[in-house]
Each structure stands twice: as C-alpha cells, then as structure tokens.
Design brief:
Distance between the termini: 28 Å
Structural class: alpha/beta
Low-confidence stretches: 1-20, 332-363
Strand content: 15-25%
Strand order of the largest sheet: 10-8-9-7-4-5-6-11
Number of helices: 10
CATH topology of the largest domain: Spore Coat Polysaccharide Biosynthesis Protein SpsA, Chain A
Oligomer: single chain
Helix content: 40-55%
Radius of gyration: 26 Å
CATH class of the largest domain: Alpha Beta
Mean pLDDT: 75
Order of helices and strands: EEEEHEHEHEHEHEHHEHHHEE
Amino acid sequence: MSIANGEPQSFCPDRTVAYTSGLLSIVVPAFNEQEVLPAFHERLSKVLDSLPLESEILYVNDGSRDGTLEVMKILCAHDERASILDLSRNFGKEIAMTAGLDHALGDAVIVIDADLQDPPELIPEMVKRWREGWDVVYAQRIERRGESLLKKLTAHWFYRLIQRVGRVRIPENVGDFRLLSRKALDSLLQLREQNRFMKGLFAWIGFPQIGVPYKRDPRFAGRSTWDYWRLWNFALDGITSFTTTPLKWATYMGLIVAFVSFIYGALIILQKLLYGNPVKGYPSLMVVVLFLGAIQLIFLGIIGEYLGRMFDETKGRPLYFLNSRHPDAGQPKHSDDRKSYKHEEKPCKTGGSSPDCYSRPDH
C-alpha cells in the first residue's frame, strides 16, 4: 500500500484478474442419465433464458455405460451454450464435479444433478442471493420426497455425527446443489486432495454462505446408483477427511479398557490372597479375550482407513483424465462477442476489497 496526496491506494498483485459479472456456469455431472437428460435440459434452458445473464452449461459424462454421452451430444448440437467433458472412465461424482468446476468460466458457478430431484427453477433465487453479496448459496432440503425412512434416518444421523466430531460446520440436509462465486470457486480449486468429500470442502473454504430452502422431488426417471454400501463408504470418506476424532476414540477406549482390566486383575489377586477363591474359569477368560480382540480389530481398521487415505494422497496422481471435449468445453464460444470476459490486469479499487478484483490461481 502507498500513500499519495494523503489518500491510501491499494494495488493487486501482479496476477490479479478483473472479472465482469455477467456469465453463469452450470456444471452437471451425470452417470447413466440418458432417460432424464432431455427433460432436465428443457427445464434448465427455460430457467436460463429467463435470467439477465449469459450462461454456459458444462455436462460432465462420468464414464456412463448407457447412451448418456450420445444424448449429451444431441443437446449440445441444439444449444450453443452446452459443452461436454467426457471423462476417460467412471471416477465418481466428486471427481466429476471437480472436473466441471475446473473448466467453468463463469463469474458464478452452479452445481446441479441431472436427475431433477433438485429443481432448476431454484436457480434464479440462488442468483439473487449471489447478487446480494453471498459467495456460497446452498440449496437446503426441508422435505425429501421419494426417499425411504431408513435413508432419511441414516442421513440425519450422519449429519449429526459429523457436526459433533468435525472441525467444520457442514449444514444439515444440504447436497451438492449450490452456487459459488468466482472468488469462492478459485479458493476451492486450490484443494486437490484425492479423497474428495465435496460437501465438506464447500464448507471448509468459508466465505459468506446462506441457504435457500426447497422441497426435494423423487427421481424423474431411471434409478439411483447410490446403494447403502456406497453411502456407507461415502460417509467414511466424509468423517475421515474432516476429523481425526475416531483416532482419539481409539486412544480413549484403549485407556478405559486398560484401566478396567487393571482393576479387574487387582480384584482377582486380592480374592486369591485374602480368601483363597480360585480364579474363574475358561468361559469368562474367553469372553474377555474375544472382547479385547474385537476392540483391537475395530481400531486397527480405523487406523487403516486413515493410512489408506494418506497412501492415496502421497501418490500424487491426477484427479481425472479427459477422453474428449465437445465442442470446446472450458473455452468461451464466440470469443469476439465475449470480449468482456477476457481477463486483464489492473489495479484494485481502494482498499482491495472489491468483489470484482481478486487473484485467480492457475488450474
């Protein structure tokens, strides 16, 4: 900061980028969604047509085994806003979202699933909140239609657990449907860990966040690929990615078991010395041995989960590979008409706090 004529002046670093506020990117990860994509695109297009913003739609094909890619190509041919990122294989939804976010060009980016459980009609309200100054606008479910009681209960228990043991507050009943400002997105894209729990990463970056309530609909067509086993593993990823509390539990449980074992052993010795009572037999001994063995195996498994994730991170592999792009995902179409979106280096406004001026990292 320098002072000229008694007035403070702040300048951005060399790589500061100035953005306009007129491009909205929609990232749509999809796996085996050929049945629902046409209806989804129709509803999404109507919403985008009603907004006073230019927009782009980034479909991410996450290694689909049905006709999803072919349907995407048809949609892309009829809508110049649409582009396709075709991943080299199925990397999972978290990575597919990351690929779309990596290539999004907008000043605000919205992630939405293609199954129409999350209504595109909520987008104008999210954009309104962004215009008010919120960097992250998440859609919060107040009703979950079409889901079993067991799934609702397990989801509730998971959120309660991660709220208690986690270091970051993750809003309850919030999925991936949300809007990110460019500032929030650029911060998110610096987080390149392999085991990605996006709900936690969205919360971890901070910035002003607000929820928009809505009622979640059942799937429009097709069937979900998220069975209970995948949800269980997803919950493990969430817990192990954002807290080491289970390791502390292992330590505390070990101390408790050691203390109880010491007291029990002392009582047996006293009974033998004072009263001559024989030590109780084989069954009780086996119960104690099996109990301790089970505790050890459980906590070895917990330690193994953390070690496995550390092993994944040390490999340093790329998060994903692209098989192809259709037609030019990640590049502005009609560049002559979009000169306003080209980045130029210029000084920040006084104070350096303008939302139109911040540093964008390479990615």
